[in-house]
Amino acid sequence: MRQVIHHVPESHMQSYTRFKLALTEDDPVVKPYDEAAWARLGDVELTPIETSLTLLDALHDRWVRVLRMLDEAAWSRTFRHPDLGSVRLDGNLALYAWHGKHHVAHITSLRERMGWA
Fold it and tell me: CA–CA separation, 22 vs 79, rounded Å?
């Protein structure tokens, strides 16, 4: 569970950066990252879960501020992912809204199975 909790802000940071690149450059090429390799780094075990939750909260605050300033044309801006091709910002936002809910469901399910409060 620890890896999932740390993964969410790391993944959302990637997406936030991609949003900002797409808003400031024409169809920028973004770099993918190896999620599994990031999860194996020592900071995952050393960092308190609260640190990643605070990071996620602050990141989402900043991201929402960006999203609220977008006009209709901005939502169709794109970035280019080497594996996915051209990605529109509106589609990417939908993906990350799902991503957060998906991992919350993993954590909630584990809590229920383990009888954790």
Answer: 5
Question: In angstroms, how far is CA 87 from the centroid of its own chain?
Answer: 15
Which CATH class name applies to 2-114?
mainly alpha
Q: Mean per-residue pLDDT for 89-106?
A: 81
Q: Which residues pair with 8 in a beta bridge?
A: none
Helices (H), the chain: 2-24, 35-40, 43-46, 49-69, 89-114
Q: With contact defined as beta carbons under 8 Å apart, do 79 and 30 qualify?
A: yes
Residue 59, CA distances (Å) to 42, 64, 67 in order: 22, 9, 12
Domain boundaries, the chain: 2-114
Does the pLDDT at position 110 exceed 70? no
What is the token pair recorded at 65? 């501020």
